[in-house]
Amino acid sequence: MASFVDRVTLHLRSGHGGNGCVSVRREKFKPLAGPDGGNGGNGGDIVLVADPQVTTLLNYHRAPHRSSGNGGPGMGDHRSGYQGEELVLPVPVGTVVTSADGEQLADLVDAGMRVVVAEGGRGGLGNAALATTKRKAPGFALLGTTGFEGDVLLELKTVADVALVGYPSAGKSSLIAALSAAKPKIADYPFTTLHPNLGVVEAGEVRYTIADVPGLIEGASEGKGLGLEFLRHVERCSALLHVLDCATLEPGRDPISDLDVILGELAAYPVPEGQTPLLERPQLVALNKVDVPDGKELADFVRPELEQRGYRVFEVSAVSHEGLRQLSYALAELVEADRKDKAAAPPPQRIVIRPRAVDAVDFTVTLHGGTEPEYHVTGAKPERWVQQTDFANDEAVGFLADRLAKLGVEEELFAQGAVPGSTVVIGDMVFDWEPTLTSAAELITSPRGTDARLDDNQRATRAERRERYHERMDAKAAARAELDAEREAGLWSDDEGFGTGEEDEG
């Protein structure tokens, strides 16, 4: 069973916002005391936090689906809905967060760093918040918007000062166990180390961390072995320690050829932009397993050639601890020098937050041609407004039309050549466009966005009611006169029935 995972895809669903409430306050002697519908609560966010106590992404590998709480709906008496519960996910320090399309969202290199990867939905406003001097009794409320739903990629890159690199079974795990208090799994077969091991080393007054990276083989940068999956853990290291096996039993291998293969793989691995290439970082060479007689002899043989290449070479043994003290102090010097260089480096560029431009465009209108052209309106505001609209409420639809017109969507549609009845797409909503009525003559025919409940009742005057009464009386008198004329003509009688004028037989 896997015990270490450094790459996982999270399937996230943040909380949805609660709907606003439509309510009217009722008091004694005031059955309609004004709107008092509360706002809906916001959905909960999903937050990643860099936690030094977490060392693997195994928990998210086993349970990748995570969701936060939904916001509650608003209620009457100005009661807002409850806020959705925030979900906090601890991740190891050094985790890189990437979106599904490859965009880097955050690099959690320091303990305690937080990033919101899935923002919760926004709660809808109640009718009390929508009331204005011109709309004193709104009969609608805004719906809550949906939260984020999608995938993010978590990739762990170990944060250590020194990385131990070398072939499998070169003795890296034994070396880190001898230098520090780490207790990695050690065995005499390749790929014993299946995940990076971290250890803390104290050399004098300098304390630094070392990482035991799984063994590299030829072609690791192209996906062979386990190297490609773990070369990312070398990116953040300040120095490299090449651990060369001087007692290998494999034919065709020697410390020089092993070093050449490892250098080729490190050179082929691309580091992120702005970082120093791996081969340009400080490097030391440790000739391991000199406690073996043949190993000591081979180390003495290859050491001059390595020193001729410019490497500082140490003959060490993880079993007898020979040369470990000198190696730890040499690594401490490299780490201390790198820390001084970083401290003397100019501070990172400040992030300048500029106010939003006054003439910034909040939307775009795109014409999609075809037999039936469609006008697609994209933008955060229009798409959010469509989500907040209850299309079963005519007043809410009118409010949406007013908001879109105020934003300038209708003017842009006119500029793009749209005509009444054209198909307009905003988010998931497709509808036939009807321009907002603006001229005085058109406003007579009940413009969109008005509330029919607020229309004035036109009561008839007394003269109009008298005239309608006389018209009804005259109509009744004319009907009676017509019936009397038919009876005198013998078309019907009161005793014999209607229409025949004949007596009943029998």
From TrEMBL:
One of its GO terms (biological process) is ribosome biogenesis. Its main location: cytoplasm. One of its GO terms (cellular component) is cytoplasm. It comes from the Bacteria. Residues 160-336 form the OBG-type G domain. Residues 448-506 are annotated as: Disordered. GO terms for molecular function: GTP binding; GTPase activity; magnesium ion binding. Its EC number is 3.6.5.-. Keywords: Cytoplasm, GTP-binding, Hydrolase, Magnesium, Metal-binding, Nucleotide-binding. GTP binds at residues 166-173, 191-195, 212-215, 288-291, 317-319. Residues 450-489 have a biased composition (Basic and acidic residues). Monomer. This is GTPase Obg. It comes from Protaetiibacter intestinalis. The gene is obgE.
